[in-house]
Design goal:
This protein is mostly helical. It has one domain: 3-Layer(aba) Sandwich (Rossmann fold), CATH 3.40.50. Helices cover 49% and strands 3% of the residues. A two-stranded parallel ribbon has the order 1-2. The radius of gyration is 20 Å and the shape is globular.
């Protein structure tokens, strides 16, 4: 059994051998749908769920569609232990590579929308930003990615897979929409709510505004730095259209839980697919 590498150190954080090794493992996915929809290089930030090492974070929870027993287990347990283990992992990673003075960590985990109250219990110092999008676009995007990841493992006809995906995506979206409304209404802290299309159209301005709303430390070149980062990104263009899996836009938005979510956060239908 090979020894695990030590925690990263500040001096070699951006050049350590782990970056090259990790990049080699993901470069083989270039040219796939995954590159178009959710590409992350070895030195890019990734979703927190990949740090949940009690098996709840496998492949970003994408196998839930194909692993029913595992999905039932995820639904039946509270993830507080996974959250606390993740907090320990963050502390380990910061041991020799602390955040700069006056800086802060940015954690992202859309998969835990249903457990945000519990997340705050484990991370009481956290400030919350919720991003919102037309649930139809959100659902078809997630469904497309999950279907792609699970395709090699689901031995069903295309029509059967699509029917299963419609049911899965609809239930997932309704549950998360209801949870976000509940959190925004009842949470001990008031989250900052951001609309997806606003963020895509003005990423630099929205990022600066978020810092102001959170009372977080900012800096004079923030907007220029965000714009420069976006310009530097060399990635495959996202798909121009997404499969609908038989879902109809207007009908999907009229479902009670989804309609209540759109009304609560002031969301308008995304008539034309917005990508960023």
């Amino acid at each position: 059994m090979s020894a695990q590498p030590p925690p990263p150190e500040a001096a070699t954080y951006a050049t350590g051998p782990r970056i090259t090794a990790t990049q080699k493992t993901i470069d083989g996915l270039k040219g796939s749908l995954l590159e178009q929809m959710h590409w992350v290089n070895a030195d890019d930030p990734e979703e927190c769920i990949f740090g949940f090492y009690n098996t709840s974070g496998i492949l970003g929870a994408a196998p839930a569609f194909a692993m029913q027993d595992w999905t039932d287990w995820l639904s039946s347990c509270q993830p507080e232990i996974a959250f606390r283990e993740y907090r320990m992992l963050i502390k380990l990673l910061l041991w020799r590579n602390p955040a700069p003075e006056g800086g802060h960590l940015v954690l992202k985990c859309p998969q835990i929308s249903k457990q945000l109250h519990l997340w705050l219990k484990v991370f009481p110092e956290a400030k919350m930003i919720l991003t919102h999008r037309d649930p139809f676009r959100m659902s078809t995007s997630v469904a497309t990615l999950i279907a792609h990841i699970n395709e090699p493992f689901v031995k069903k006809s295309v029509s059967d897979r699509e029917e299963m995906m419609v049911e899965y995506a609809t239930k997932l979206t309704e549950t998360k929409c209801a949870a976000l409304v509940d959190f925004d209404t009842t949470a001990a802290i008031k989250p900052v709510n951001i609309k997806y299309d606003d963020l895509v159209s003005d990423a630099a301005g929205i990022t600066a505004a978020m810092h102001d709303q959170l009372g977080a430390a900012s800096w004079p070149t923030l907007e220029a730095d965000v714009s420069a980062f976006l310009t530097s990104q060399k990635r495959a263009a996202p798909p121009r259209e997404m499969p609908t899996f038989g879902l109809e836009h207007k009908g999907f938005l009229s479902r009670p839980l989804i309609a209540a979510y759109c009304e609560h956060f002031g969301l308008s239908p995304e008539r034309q697919l917005v990508t960023g």
